[in-house]
Design brief:
The complex is a heterodimer.
Chain A (H helix, E strand, L loop, with lengths): L3 E4 L2 E4 L5 E7 L5 E7 L6 E7 L2 E5 L6 E4 L7 E4 L8 E8 L9 E2 L3 E5 L1
Parallel strand pairs in A: 2-11
Antiparallel strand pairs in A: 1-3, 3-8, 4-5, 4-9, 5-6, 7-8, 9-10, 9-11
Chain B lengths: L2 E3 L3 E5 L4 E8 L6 E6 L6 E6 L3 E5 L2 E6 L4 E6 L8 E8 L8 E3 L3 E6 L1
Parallel strand pairs in B: 2-11
Antiparallel strand pairs in B: 1-3, 3-8, 4-5, 4-9, 6-7, 7-8, 9-10, 9-11
The chains are: A mainly beta, B mainly beta.
């Protein structure tokens, strides 16, 4: 069974629209993250949350808004979508305080904006 | 500035070994991890090191030199299925403790 569930797996959106990417983790972790991966680029850190509080935000645009309704949920709302937003969005989680910085990643949401 | 650098590609032969290099620059250092990522899939954790030296984990071994900002992942007895991208990731201590910076990844091609 997948430990981190991301929905949907594939998403096609029209420029200017709004979408929500879902992430739920069942590992009992207290920290969750969003990363973005585009072709030929490294995994790019976007947000980190711990105990449902925003810890770090490296996304310049306010069009990207994380939402944490429960400790094991961290959704990502994207408004006014642009073609440049096309990428795979990975959710990850970890347990802060452990020396091991092991991240567990979800399978990703592949977003295509047309 | 801060960054993690890796070569784009690496080729090796089945049954031999491959060394994936990583250099990093951070304002602080709080550990380095290696991940394997197959095309179209999520990264999978392989190894974590925070102290200098070689950490032998069987098929995968990891070396770290903090003074040189350098690490490598060593894969021995290569199999075709080891063909994948290998990502180096560094946790920066002086910024928010929850941010990990990833390199672009090195695509390892294992030839028969």
């Amino acid at each position: 069974d997948p430990k981190i569930i991301q929905k949907p797996k594939y998403l096609v959106a029209v420029t200017g629209s709004e979408k929500i990417l879902i992430c739920e983790q069942y590992l009992g972790h207290n920290a969750m993250y969003w990363y973005r991966q585009s072709a030929k680029k490294p995994l790019e850190f976007m947000f980190s949350y711990s105990y449902q509080k925003l810890m770090d935000n490296q996304t310049a645009s306010s069009r990207f808004q994380p939402q944490s309704s429960k400790k094991n949920h961290l959704d990502l709302q994207i408004t006014a979508l642009k073609p440049d937003d096309s990428a795979t969005y990975f959710c990850a989680s970890s347990q802060p305080g452990q020396g091991n910085s092991d991240y567990t990643f979800g399978s990703g949401t592949r977003l295509l904006v047309i | 500035g801060q960054g993690v650098e890796q070569p784009d590609n690496l080729m090796s032969v089945e049954g031999t070994f491959a060394r994936v290099n990583c250099t990093y620059s951070t304002s602080g250092f709080n550990g380095l991890s290696w991940y394997q990522q197959r095309e179209g899939h999520a990264p999978v954790f392989l190894s974590y090191v925070v102290l200098d030296g070689l950490k032998d984990s069987g098929h995968f071994s990891t070396f770290l030199s903090r003074s040189n900002g350098y690490s490598y992942l060593l894969l021995t007895e290569l199999q075709i299925k080891d063909s994948a991208s290998y990502l180096c990731a560094v946790r920066d201590r002086d910024t928010n403790a929850y941010k990990v910076i990833f390199g672009k990844g090195t695509h390892l091609h294992v030839l028969p």
